[in-house]
Specification:
Arc Repressor Mutant, subunit A, Tetracycline Repressor, domain 2
Length: 207
């Protein structure tokens, strides 16, 4: 049956299988044979689409978190509302990724294995972190220019904006299994936004 499936569907199936293998074994422990077995294909089939394990991992990052960032950046560029509403909008996108996507395990893998694979950490820094910080920095600068936000150190605030999302990702992939009841990640981001917007409010603005 698997040989009759549409050819264009196979890369996504390989990536889905690879994610499960990386989540179970980490980057160092994952083998192309493991990915092939989980995907139900030969190892040679994987090499038709990817140069190796590193290429598979990078594709997972690009087609999930990277694609979300690309979409959010494009929508932010055309957003017609206030900077306050734009901040809510962007963090809502990130929250949906955090709470619904199985790709949320990827940052944990990067953090855990960056010491042994610095090239992967550099890749994630360039493809995800720097782009995400640029998005947030532009958003904060927009709010300051429009008089919605007070003058603040933009590079620090950009990191503060996304810190709870990273915390949520680490919690969901590491500690959530020990929770007596499911943690309210949306509540975390809503509370973060309330505190953040009050702190950013221009003088005399009740936020």
């Amino acid at each position: 049956m698997r040989w009759t499936r549409r050819k264009e569907a196979r890369p996504s199936e390989i990536l889905d299988a690879a994610l499960k293998v990386f989540a179970e074994k980490g980057y160092a422990g994952a083998r192309m044979d493991d990915i092939a077995r989980r995907a139900g294909v030969t190892k040679g089939t994987i090499y038709l689409y990817f140069d190796g394990k590193e290429a598979v991992f990078k594709s997972l990052v690009r087609e999930s978190i990277g694609a979300t960032l690309t979409s959010a950046t494009a929508e932010a560029r055309d957003f017609q509302g206030s900077a306050r509403d734009l901040l809510r909008f962007v963090l809502d996108i990130m929250t949906r990724l955090l709470t619904t996507s199985d790709r949320v395990v990827l940052p944990k893998i990067i953090i855990a294995e960056s010491g042994n694979f610095p090239e992967l950490a550099r890749f994630y820094r360039d493809e995800i972190i720097d782009r995400g910080l640029a998005l947030m920095s532009g958003l904060i600068e927009r709010g300051i220019a429009q008089g919605e936000f007070r003058s603040v150190p933009v590079t620090h605030v950009a990191r503060l904006c996304v810190a709870p999302v990273l915390l949520g990702a680490m919690w969901r992939t590491t500690f959530a299994r020990f929770d007596a009841e499911p943690y309210d990640y949306k509540g975390l981001i809503d509370t973060h936004l309330d505190v953040l917007l009050r702190g950013l409010a221009a003088e005399g603005d009740p936020a």
